[in-house]
Amino acid sequence: MFKPLEIFIGLRYTRAKQRSGFISFISMTSMLGIALGVMALITVLSVMNGFEAQLREKILGMASHVTISEQNNALLEWNTLGNKLDGQNNVVGWAPFVKAEVMLSANQRVSGSLLRGLLPEKEGAVSDIGEKMKAGGLKTLESGRFGIILGAELARFLHVGVGDKVTVITPQVTPTPAGIFPRLKRFTVTGLFEVGMYEYDRNLALIHLDDGSKLMRLNKGVTGIRIKLDDMFRAPWVTRDIAKVLTPNYRISNWTMEHSNFFKAIKTEKRVMFIILMLIVAVAAFNIVSTLVMVVTDKRSEIAILRTLGFTPRSVMGVFMVQGTLIGFIGTVIGVMAGISLALNVETLVPAIERFFQVQFLPAEIYYISDLPSKLDWSDVTTIAIYSFVLSLVSTIYPAWQASKVNPAEALRYE
């Protein structure tokens, strides 16, 4: 169908000025519509990829890949169990922890918080919180000193800083002759951290493992062991392998169980956004139909002359398919180039726009992440470009077929 002559005539029709300026305007609109749709699709998917990658990094930088605990009891033999884990494949580190939901009180302010007890010398093996310290460090947590490290947003809410006192109120109670009272303990703030995720910065507090065990009356036991893997995506298989060597009284879980719904929701949203934005490209692509229909009407006499010179209906169809395909191809190329440029620079452009208009698109107290990340996935770019081009090609079939059905005698009767 696409022989050199058909391609040559199709390119001439595309470059030539139409007798109706409106047809040229529709052609340009179709081209720009495809370009804008492709650009928006690449940019949005890149931002969603960036959100997913950054959320996974921040969540798993604080959470564990695999967690082992004992059913309904404190884990007492955690050191022995941890030593067994050192020989497991894919395990690069482990650390014990104590976890409790408590209330923190200071300066007549009270806030619910997740309290985590840890060993400073072991925590670096399973999380990167030691690299997120704004003041102090994990080494400031010493056994028996009752020091506490707060998230930056939590400390800001409580109006406390390093050296200030915070009262920890546990859900356990102490019976006295005067009645039942909640257990209270005064801690000294020894450091502040900020991981850039509001959920942790606002709700997490860290203490020494021994202090946490004593506070929660675990008899020198721990809540469980956190494990870090060399490949977090192997967590389900590693969980299964570890479960084989543990007795039934242990409970083992991994990040895909604890956060699976969250990441599935992100993938679903990404898929829906792809479909919605692809409809924009489809609308622009099918504008080519109206463009070519008007071009065919405008060039009926030329089509008739080509037919009398020996052009077959198939060749005529090829001429107009070349014209429509070229519109779609140019629009797709422009959109891909613009989308790639915008996706690679969105992290610079958005802060500049926020400063210029004095607005914040993603307030930290509402969204998990307060900046707009971007991660360009070349497979997404390829898929979008192919879909866009195929839609443009399909939209040329009907008007090109109509052109091939033009009767030369009828078209030349009044010429």
Describe this protein with a few key phrases:
415 residues; alpha+beta; 2 domains; 6-stranded mixed barrel
What does this entry show, briefly?
This protein has 415 residues and is an alpha+beta fold. Helices cover 54% and strands 20% of the residues.
Notes on the protein architecture:
- With 415 residues, the protein is α+β, with helices and mostly antiparallel strands.
- It has two domains: 4-58 and 262-412, no CATH class; 64-255, no CATH class.
- Helices cover 54% and strands 20% of the residues.
- The chain is built from 15 helices and ten strands.
- It has helices at residues 4-15, 21-62, 78-85, 120-123, 152-158, 198-203, 209-215, 235-245, 255-258, 260-298, 300-308, 313-357, 378-395, 397-404, 408-412; strands spanning 66-70, 91-106, 109-118, 133-135, 147-151, 165-176, 179-193, 204-208, 224-229, 250-254.
- It has a six-stranded mixed β-barrel with strand order 2-3-8-5-7-6.
- A hairpin with a 2-residue loop joins β6 (165-176) and β7.
- The longest helix has 45 residues, at 313-357.
- The protein is elongated.
- The model has no long low-confidence stretch (mean pLDDT 82).
